[in-house]
Amino acid sequence: MSLTFSSSMTHFSNATEDYSAYYSLTNGNEHELCSVNHVRNFGQVFLPTLYSIVFIVGFIGNGLVLCVLVKYHNRSNVTDVCLFNLALADLLFLISLPFWAHYVAINQWTFGSIMCHAVTALYMMGFYGSIFFMILMTIDRYAVIVHAHTSLFSKYRSVKTATAMTFFMWVISLGASLPSIIFSEAKNETGSLTCKQEYPKDTQWNKVSYMELNILGLIIPLSVMVFCYSRIIPVLINMKSQKRHKAVRLILVLVSVFFLFWTPYNFVIFLKFLHHTGYMNTCEWHQNLNMAMQWVETIAFCHCCINPIIYAFVGQKFRNLAFKILKEWFPVCFGRCTIIISEFSERRRSSMLSRSSEISTTKIV
To answer: Membrane-crossing residues (predicted)?
Structure first.
């Protein structure tokens, strides 16, 4: 995955790309190979460890979201349909991480050509699917809150409509992923197999792939979130509900987390684009960009671990259902937790009642 996933994803590229094309001028017509050994060695230790952590944490969180939604599917609504597919997209993305971790750890692709295409498909479909379903959930919230009294939105807002929109989003995700999937190739380079995008020479596919990541991965989703939530917040503030401040804080967290996790990654992607167009085309820039990609890519990947917390577990109802399932699966652990939580809640309630009684007595005196 190379685009090089340079762009996005396989910058494992760090560990697998053939860097013989990168040279720096020395004396006269002599050339010296731009060494990336220190970047590769760092990545072989750093990336597999963090990819494994992201995979474990993200798989548990998103898997629990799917289990709750499947078990209680009779209570589904439009939000649940979007949330289900968001978790599914994150899981597809996460399933690809162990393959990339193994790839970068041993500096060789050992899974064959078909798996190169398949794992790239999982990665890209999960990558774009996660972003597109966040956009869909944002638009749905905008329609429900800002246009709550518009008959057009209320008429067509149903599970059936959400299912149709879900299918449409997956089709778009596949379309955005196709170039990376098609041009992925497992080939023998310098004695070891690599899995990366091999774009046709003398074409603009490489540059287009970088711009696609920036536009679809940051500019469009961030613009939609800023526009929709900037209209939602004033409506919530004017409501008389006591929970409006909590809702506003949650919105600010949603936008801030997305911006903080994905902006560094997209900024480095843009610098990669400039690098491939001839700007900053030096050995030092090449080394720094590949080292930076390792950090920002891992930060961006962590977002799929945060999604279940932000979109699902923040709600009291969803937390209760998730805890109910965990108590059924692990009665020993979570059964005791239930007793402890119940005792704590009872003591807290008794304390509040006692305090209320004292205040009332004081007022009477």
So the answer is: 50-70, 82-101, 121-143, 164-183, 215-238, 250-274, 294-314
